[in-house]
Amino acid sequence: MNSLITAIRPLVLKYCRARLSTYAGGIDAADDVAQETCVAVLKVLPRYQDKGAPFAAFVYAIAANKVADAQRGFSRSAVLVDEFPEQTEPSPTPEELAVAAGDIRSATLLLNRLPDRMREVLVLRAGGSSADMVGERLGMSANAVRVAQHRATVKLRQLISESAEHREQFSGLVRL
């Protein structure tokens, strides 16, 4: 059991961080979600049946559900800070932060309009995972990952082009 957790925890943690890093406190929450995922894997392991898909796909399915739960929790709660730092860092202006938050919100809404598999592929690839790694995690070949990534990108461009607001918002980032 220890060797199983030792093998899957770093991969699950990287996945959770990629999915939760845009939320305030998301990196810290990712550690907790990764731990919950490992516990859930151990709990359902006695009932696991090999159906031909890689075991990693089973683990990532559990992680995806735990991440979704955490994301719902973020949307319902505010993050409180115990104390303010005495020294300020050079940081974006409030206007820049508001624009960035709007961009993240819009991008998340657009991503959520994609089929689950396409969204997972894009998030994992954007997080720095290779096509081979994503394929192993999701039970796909590396070529299938590349095709899914291409189709997801085309679909995102289509969704952006269908909305005047999104076209303007993402005009500098996306070739339409």
Outline of this structure?
The chain has helices at residues 2-20, 26-44, 55-76, 94-112, 116-126, 131-138, 142-161, 164-169. It has 176 residues and is mainly alpha-helical.
Low-confidence stretches: none
Q: Radius of gyration over alpha carbons?
A: 18 Å
Q: What structural class do helix, strand and pairing data support?
A: mainly alpha
As a percent range, the share of helical residues equals over 70%
Mean pLDDT: 83
Oligomeric nature of the chains: single chain
CATH superfamily of the largest domain: Winged helix-like DNA-binding domain superfamily/Winged helix DNA-binding domain
CATH class of the largest domain: Mainly Alpha
- What share of the residues does DSSP label as strand, in percent? under 5%
CATH topology assignment of the largest domain: Arc Repressor Mutant, subunit A
Spatial separation of the terminal alpha carbons: 49 Å
**Helix and strand pattern:** HHHHHHHH
Q: Biggest β-sheet: count, sense, barrel?
A: none
Q: What is the count of DSSP helices, taking H or I runs of 4+ residues?
A: 8
User: What would you call the shape?
Assistant: globular
How many DSSP-defined strands? 0
CATH architecture of the largest domain: Orthogonal Bundle
How many discrete domains? Answer: 2
Describe the fold and architecture.
The protein is mainly alpha-helical. The protein has 2 domains: 1-79, Orthogonal Bundle (Rna Polymerase Sigma Factor, Chain: A); 92-176, Arc Repressor Mutant, subunit A, CATH 1.10.10. The protein has 8 helices and no strands. The chain starts with a helix and ends in a 7-residue tail after the last helix. The mean pLDDT is 83.
